[in-house]
């Protein structure tokens, strides 16, 4: 079992008697289903349905003060805190950015020998293992406690990419991507039965009409890795952009209709003059609906 402290992750806490209903009316996941030891994947969207910030969220047990802990990109933690503060109006909630004192330990390739209080299974993909909210200085101690080898965060990144799970800022741009484009519907990040939240109308329409033309897909690199953001071409026609890469594995944001046409025509894909291929060609041939 491996563990890595993810220095790029921050923690925002939302507490107070109205916290559950407050959050549930804003984000894509059903916060009413949360309890200590359980995590859910979700996002706060713009009214136009684009991702402001994606995150994982768990409920803290009473021994840790209760409330909800949001595991989000550290660079966006203060902005998320400010945005939630803007929305709270008269709601009896408190919002705190705890990123200077708390971080996130990611673990994979096994289950913890002992489950710490602020631990939960990664809700996106079972292969990604567990998340543990912990101060940075306790990372080694917690890794020893759960029976994991503490490794560099780059090992976690390689595992994330091989597992096909996108990361904001590398595989898509915040403020410019819809949840379907980043596979949030397939990674249990959108609850289509929970009722209203910010941006819900747009997301529901894309789900029921099947209008998502762009998807994040896994690619296999035949040589060196192109830089993130490099265009992917089918012949001389753009079909997408490269995202994060590790070794021969990568992620790409692909126009699935154009990629499907290229597959049918036998046109090879390249990026930066380097050959690439789709790890799972069926990802662009069909777009099954997945409801979280």
Structural class: alpha+beta
Order of helices and strands: EEHEEEHEEEEHEHHEEEEHEEH
User: What proportion strand?
Assistant: 25-35%
Question: Taking strands numbered 1, 2, ... along the chain, how are they ordered across the largest sheet?
Answer: 11-14-13-12-15-16
The helicity comes to 10-25%
Model regions low in confidence, pLDDT < 50 over at least 5 residues: 287-292
Total E-strand runs:
16
Radius of gyration: 19 Å
Could you say which overall geometry the principal axes of the C-alpha atoms support?
Answer: globular
Residue-averaged pLDDT, rounded? 94
Question: How far do the termini sit from each other?
Answer: 28 Å
Structural account:
With 292 residues, this protein is of the alpha+beta class. It is 22% helix and 31% strand. The chain is globular and about 60 Å long. It starts with a strand and ends in a 7-residue tail after the last helix. Mean pLDDT is 94; it is low at 287-292.
